[in-house]
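Many groups now describe folds with learned vocabularies. In that spirit, our science desk offers one protein's residues alongside their backbone shape tokens.
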Amino acid sequence: MMKKLRWIGVLGFTLLTSITMAQNVPAKSLWLRADVGVNLSGTRVVSWTDQSGNNWNASAPSTSRRPLYQLLGSNFNPTFNFDGSDNLDVSYRSGLNTRNFTVFSVHRLTGGNNRYRSPFTSRDDYPQRGYILYVAPNGRYQFWNGRGSGWANMSTSQSASSSSELLIYRGSRSGNNLVKRGYVNGQSFAGPTSDRFSRNTRRPYRIGAGATEGSGNYFWYGDISEQIVFNSALTTTQRQITESYLAIKYGLSLGNNNQAISYLKADGTSVWDAISAYRYDVAGLAKENSPFDLDQKVSSSGNLSVNTSGNTVLATTNNFNLSNLDNSRQALSEGQFLLWGHNNQSMNSWVNVGCSQRVSRFWRLQNTNDVGTIFFQINLNNFPASSTGTYTLFLDDDTNLSNGVVSTHALVGNGNQYTTSFDPPDGVSYFTIGVRDETSPIISNCPSNIQACSGDVITWTAPTATDNCGTPTLTVNMTPGQVFPDGDTVVTYTATDAWGNTSECSFTVSVNQEPAPVGVFYE
């Protein structure tokens, strides 16, 4: 029996291990990220060091083709700007030209829609081999692959964005064919289609160009922040883990505001649950060393500029301008995540909540492993005026502020930008912006000072408390009907309303020892 149980235990461990491994992403073939491994000449990128461990580094083929390095690029992270004539090449590698592959690219197109533009390609024209991601002259994405003689094109209706976005080209082998799929910000938008496929066998993997022989062609016009190539067609969970890393790092909303998508940590567990009401402008802070070295210390949604009304920035230190790489920024601890997104409701009028007011929009927070104190900035341009002059962040464990709030935090203004700090509860919580009731409760009939003797039972009539909204809570540090210690004791009543406004009334109970009796004493 013991032997049978031992085998069952081994089998169970094996199955759990297999499930865990199936969720983890495989080894990367190529990993190029603008926040590390960049070699510069002035502000121009000379070469880009591969972080996959394969040492398949990229370099500019000439000084005239070096892209521009930008420290503050996408979501406080660096990026490279390609001006329509720049590119970087990785020398031919068979490991970048497999029959199954998945390529992730974080980029944005800023111009040049009059011709084909390619953020990455691994192709050969003579004969036609390999794969290409294009933005066509009409501004829409196309996925090409070589057949050995001629090209197969999968056209789409998806237009390239002028904001950073995450594009995925996934190819999987089916006989001699390639099954192509395309995803943007976590959402499938192209394929599957199947075409005969012939792999590139000699040309470089190109970043920011379609072809680089001679004077080159199909150059990218815009930014590129990161690219990852896998020599396998990732599973749905593996793809989602990789998407989550890139989305948190670059402030991208998975689902593109059309569907809710969960964000997953490396083991496949959710750090942002797919909830349709709160799928808008998702961003996050995080620290997870493996498999992607995620270390995001300041973040905002890439859908909104910092000058857009309602734009929120959260950071681990009280600075909302410096790069994520700045040494002054404090990293979270391993396994800590804080993600947020809103319900897309109005921000231009007040909703009454008792004697306080709030906007209709709520933001949902999901805090994994308690990130601690976070610094917060929001743009309040076009918000309604504050009747008290004090804008406030209301933090709650639900969205029903009328039954009390977890905490309130006054916002300090600087132009349209307002800031505060707070400690979000572990797990799920919500915040909104409003104007809090600042009227303190009134305490009536506060008792007068009391004189008593040792051992006396002290009593008095308790005061009453009223408020402009609702009935406040009245607490006291000492209660009537008890014996007080000798000396002076201050009795304090505190009235607290639903918004944390307080009033106090105090009186003193003085207890004196009884005098010794007067009499005649004889020896």
